[in-house]
Design goal:
This protein is an alpha/beta fold. It has a ten-stranded mixed beta sheet with strand order 7-1-2-6-3-5-4-8-9-10, sandwiched between helices. Helix 1 packs across helix 6. The structure holds threonylcarbamoyladenylate and magnesium ion.
Length: about 325
Amino acid sequence: MIETAKNLLLQGQPVAIPTETVYGLAAPIDNEQAIKKIFSLKKRPFFDPLIVHVSNMEQAKACVKHWPALADVLAKKFWPGPLTLVLDKNEKISDLITSGLSRVGLRQPQHPLALELIKQVGVPLAAPSANKFGKTSPTTADHVRQEFKAEDVFVLDGGPCQVGIESTVLLIKNTNQISILRQGFITASDIEAALKSQAQVFEWIQTTSKNEAPGHLQHHYMPAVPLLFCHKQVEPSQLQDWFRQNQSQIPSSVEGVQLIRPHSFDNAKELVLADDSALAARQLYSEMRRLAESKADFLYFIKKPQHLHESWAAILDRLTKAASLHYR
Ligand code: TXA
Ligand code: MG
């Protein structure tokens, strides 16, 4: 399997790879044609940069202008693992990968097959999640096979993803300023604790500019049927009426991402997740896919008091963006 994946990559063909977060659609960073194929297969706009996956820390250092002390501490603590560090890139990283931005996102994934493949290919692999743009990320090899034709994308099957949601993306700028660009399994508190334990000086900053956070779209991760996010408890029967009356508020597309309207309101299904946030993260995308395929007309998720805990922030972020409508 690894041999096939390696040969295809060396021939310039993108390959789907398992990681601990979600499956990625990978190509070597030194092959522009293969990187372009990733964008066209995903129907992804060129303004959204790709994360570069390395097999060790030295490979990451070779992609950046400087390797800040904060990056060193965080990589030693959390790599291999679900943390992407956004740092000043050097000439090894093409503008295609970073969408013309001066920084690159780097991470060492924690999956033996991914690490072995990167090692064998000998160069880092650029890889976004292996789904069509705006849609639910894949957490099993079958999810990827449903997303792309077999002749277009070979899938290196590494079993179900253990984390289940995408990595935390952390920007490090001006030596000691940090900002979370995308929430993930590793929380702000985890990052703070790691930096404080090594007596690092740092400052949290806000980032709103598209140059720093190009991936900030209102809608993302969307299942094949509409998802209604309920911010308070509600009866399903009440919800059907409410959705019927309010569905006209759903625009056909936002920032280039198409939103789906329900065909009917007869069959609503609740997206129920485990109380434990780590388990819930692992279930999230699989459940969204399973329910969407189960003839549901629309899905709804009800936010509960326990979801206010920090460990739920990344899951709620995904659900908020996956939702077509919010019941408040
Ligand atoms: O867990 C993950 O991160 C997965 C696995 C495959 O590694 N990858 C993933 O990639 O989720 P993707 O392309 O679906 O999301 C990457 C996110 C986007 O929001 C993108 O805007 C941001 O990371 N990103 C990547 N490079 C960046 C850069 N140079 N500056 C700012 N944000 C960046
Ligand atoms: Mg993605």
